[in-house]
Amino acid sequence: MSIPTPASLPAWPDAVATPARLALRADLLDFDADPGFAPPASAPGVRWRPDHWLLVEGGRIHGAVPGAQPPGDDWLKVDRSGSLVLPGFIDTHVHCPQLDVIASYGTELLDWLNTYTFPAETRYADPQVAAEGAMRFVDALLAHGTTSAVVFPTVHKVSADALFAESDARGMRMVTGKVLMDRHAPDGLRDDVVQAERDCIELIEKWHGHGRQSFAVTVRFAPCSTPQQLKMAGGLMRRFPGLYMHTHVAENRDEVRWVAELFPEARSYLDVYGSAGLLNERAVLAHGIWLDDTDRALLRDTGAQIAHSPSSNLFLGSGLFDWAGAEAQGVKVSVASDVGGGTSLSMLRTLADAYKVQAMQGTRLSAWKALYAATWGAARHLGLGSEVGRLEPGFMADFTVWDWAVGPVSTHRDQVARELHERVFAWLTLGDERNLQAAFVAGNRRFRRAA
Ligand code: GUN
Ligand code: ZN
User: Fold this and answer.
1) What is the mean pLDDT for each group of 10 consecutive residues in the chain (451 residues)?
2) pTM for the complete prediction?
3) Residues 6 or more apart from 90 whose CB is under 8 A from it?
4) Which ligand is nearest the CA of 341, by number?
5) Index of the ligand 1 atom closest to the CA of residue 251
6) Using an 8 Å Cβ cutoff, are 297 and 329 in contact?
């Protein structure tokens, strides 16, 4: 394989806003079906177009043509030959305010929340902290190659408003909503049912369906909401069809025991949400490690998805999620960084952790399945499968441009790769945000690596 070194590539044009017609030359990788847990050599769905011009017009993908057949002079041509282009990553569970506590030492979930997370989130009552935090966060997502996300802000309405505003300003597809938590949290980090409902409705009316913004009824987790608040949340879902729901479930064994004490009438932790009318095909539940077969059947029947968060599960010592087992029972699974329980916004690092979590259980996660899950797979599970996640005509031009290798080890590993899966798997396993050259959202370049 002949691999140009990144240093030999021309610089990006200076303009941030892309002209109406952009052609970008690189190796194109995307997916048109779920590769599943099939061996890499026989996995379906892989679309590999080496050395092609990706054509972008009016913020959408227009098509692709072979490198030797460049489009006409009415296209701005940017030659990034030897780079890799993928659809932008979709992180289905991540916390904006937790950039303040990422990489905090020494605790499991409930202790970690009380020691680090809740105090940090309290500061987001301040509109300036919320605005600065939202800006830092969305720019960090883009700098890691993530162009769409399902995000927890804080309990404060202003934190959700700031996040919507920053995402909207960049034209990103964002799913978020004010966090609901009316008990078991410190002063300054609790709402009440009436005010929370009012705040949610105001945010829904302002942001849901505005540009690419979508509102999620965001229940922190069952222990932080009274039954009355869960009922109110279910009521919002019924009153405003098309909302998402976002929460945590069955992450940690002490948490599961606590939920059983708090909701003795519930069959299980998941049943607390089901009984409140919170499960449907737009529900995203992070973790789901400690579920049983009845729970998995409920997820399957309602169409709710698990946002598997391997980095967080390892860091907080929560457990090993059985991805292949869940899918075999019909559960939809996407992948998430869960920063700050997770230790990186990089979906490459997150997927590399997912590989290891599956390996611990005797399952092999191919690069195809991993990358599909973080692009079109997530889009489909979110009901966005016609908008994002593929390099297909008509899709939004949300895509990322990557170096195959950075530094001597990954450069050497790349050069000795004998076939495509080997090469892509090594890239995924060794790569991170340092490999990212640029990120485009709706055809506009929103991140460019500093020279
Ligand atoms: N459960 C409830 N809140 C949180 C949170 O902020 N992070 C994680 N990982 N789990 C939670
Ligand atoms: Zn989380």
Assistant:
1) 47 62 98 98 98 97 98 96 98 98 96 98 98 98 98 98 98 98 98 98 98 98 98 98 98 98 98 98 98 98 98 98 98 98 98 98 98 99 98 98 98 98 98 98 96 78
2) 0.97
3) 146, 147, 148, 149, 334, 374, 375, 378, 379, 382, 388, 389
4) 1
5) 10
6) yes
Q: Ligand 1 pocket by C-beta < 6 Å: which residues?
A: 95, 109, 113, 117, 220-221, 248, 251, 312, 338, 341
Query: How many angstroms separate the Cα of 153 from the Cα of each of 60, 215, 237, 265, 346?
Result: 29, 12, 19, 30, 19
Q: Across-strand partners of 23? A: 55, 77
Which residue is closest in CA terms to ligand 1's atom 3? 220
Domain segments of the chain: what residues?
A: 21-87+389-448, 89-345
Phi (first) and psi of residue 303, to 5 degrees: 80, 10
- Residue 116 C-alpha to ligand 2 middle, in angstroms? 14
Architecture of domain 89-345: Alpha-Beta Barrel (3.20)
The Å distance, Cα 284 to ligand 2 centre, comes to 11
Class of domain 21-87+389-448: mainly beta
Cβ 309 vs Cβ 98: under 8 Å: no
Cα of 95 from ligand 2 centre, angstroms: 6
Q: Select from 113, 249, 256, 273 the residue to mutate for testing ligand 1; criterion: most ligand atoms less than 8 Å from CB.
A: 113
